[in-house]
Specification:
The protein is an all-alpha fold. The chain is built from six helices and no strands.
Length: 103
Amino acid sequence: MEKIEQLKSYLVRSPDDSFLKHALALEYIKMGRDELAKDLFVEILTRDPSYIGTYYHLGRLLERSGEMAAAKSWFEKGMAASKSVGDPHSYQELLAAYEDLID
């Protein structure tokens, strides 16, 4: 809980910091608070669609929650975004997650 409070205090000073929001979302997942994590991930990608790592985590969270169509959509968006920024490693990770989902 201390780490969450620390991240929140940093966000007061830097409210648009995608890294801090992503880290906070991952902490929420560890605590089983997936809905809060999901909201943060969506917020990050709405404001900063080039924050590529978030697509993977959001897609997996949605997959675990049984939201397969939403997970597929976010994986697809992430693959497109990773291509547009020239990140083949992230593209391959997203593609593998996407293929696991549709198989």
